[in-house]
Design a protein that fits this description.
The protein starts with a helix and ends in a 5-residue tail after the last helix. It is globular, with a radius of gyration of 15 Å. By secondary structure, it is mostly helical. Helix 4 packs antiparallel against helix 5.
Length: 125
């Protein structure tokens, strides 16, 4: 069972690392997947730097949890994902953004998976 959970937890980790690297090497290709055009100047710098950092942090923290067997590595990515979901809901309710139900569901699902992993996978504190 632990092996299956490790694989299931590892899949989004790899996805997030790939997404972070795509922001660094081909931002114009990944920006439309998030519903926006790649900005210019400082805007582009912010998009590339912030999104690469966000996704690389998610993936690397999850991988650190899997490799080290320490539960604390699962909490930062779970918090980032839940805060992103909350931000999307607030953008929809307060700022007339389109409701991003699929993205919110994915973020909440992966965060729940990470919290489950923090409970069942650690080999040490």
């Amino acid at each position: 069972m632990k092996t299956v959970l490790k694989i299931v937890v590892g899949l989004p980790a790899v996805l997030f690392v790939v997404m972070g690297l795509r922001w660094l090497v081909a931002p114009a290709d990944i920006a439309p997947e998030f519903g926006f055009v790649l900005g210019d100047g400082l805007g582009r710098s912010s998009q590339v730097g912030d999104f690469a950092a966000f996704f690389l942090t998610l993936g690397i923290c999850i991988l650190m949890g899997l490799v080290s067997g320490r539960r604390l590595w699962y909490y930062p990515p779970a918090m980032l994902l839940l805060l992103a979901a909350i931000g999307r809901i607030l953008a929809w309710t307060l700022h007339d953004a389109t409701f991003a139900g699929g993205m919110i569901a994915f973020e909440v699902l992966v965060a729940a998976l990470l919290l489950a992993a923090s409970r069942w996978l650690p080999e040490r504190e």
